[in-house]
Amino acid sequence: MAQLRLIASGLPADEEDALDAYSQVVVAVAERVTPSVANLRVARRVRGGRVLAGGGSGVVITPDGFLVTSAHVVAGTAGAGRASFSDGRDVEFGVVGADALSDLAVLRLSDGGFTAAELGDAEELRVGQLVVAIGNPNGFSGSVTAGVVSALGRSLPTRSGAAVRVVDNVIQTDAALNPGNSGGALADGRGRVVGINTAVAGVGLGLAVPINAATRQIVGALMKEGRFRRAYLGIVGQQRPLPPRIARQLGRAGCVEVGEVIDSAPAALAGVRPGDLIVAVDGRPVETMAELQRLLVGERIGASVTFTVARHERVLDIAVVPHELAA
Hints:
CATH architecture of the largest domain: Beta Barrel
Order of helices and strands: HEEEHEEEEEEEEEHEEHEHEEHEEE
């Protein structure tokens, strides 16, 4: 009787062990997260009355059937579709709310008893860290790819009508992403979902909206109210260094320079001018547009907000009452 013999790989034992460890982590993450990832099927009506089929992925976040996905996956649909899972379940879902400016949406399944994914914190990620993407690229459900965090702090431009915003702290990964992965899970080595895959930026380059304090707030608002409210100032700004004297006076280096003020917008009505340097909002230092955006939450709509600005080498406070940003 013939005997089978194992052929040595030629790799040192420690490299073989490392490969085994890597595989074990990916397998464990896939087994833990895949039951929580849905294959979404939607239909969009386009010009000429035609109906086109589309799809994407979603991640279950509560056992009673709330899912998170990318807003663009369900944009232009009738607000409903079907979701299928690795255990064979196929159920209808409805769109609870979507926020195009963060590219996040919340769906609700027509059934319960689902496996909810554990949400992590993208702020704990490090460049080079192992991540696993799970979704349905090109309709192939339950596909798993692995890679590393290629970069952190990327920006993703988004648009809703005339409103334009930049999603900050976006995760860049080399885990293979393809059409259909949008809305799927990006998980860390412990199986915690740290991002929602949103875009394919090129060969070997994918982007994911991070799961962090800011996006948890958005998801919570979508679950409760079906929308996320943002305050509107009506300015266009950019980051720049403070003049040396003002920098010494305030003990910081950067600010947001107002490049344009929209006529009749809250900032214009309050007296904010092009060229003003915004250094603080209600006493909280501001050095970038991303920091300013994070402060413009729903609670500030209709409330007086104190903007500390530097103007012609003087520092002054301006009271602004933001409006709600129209969807």
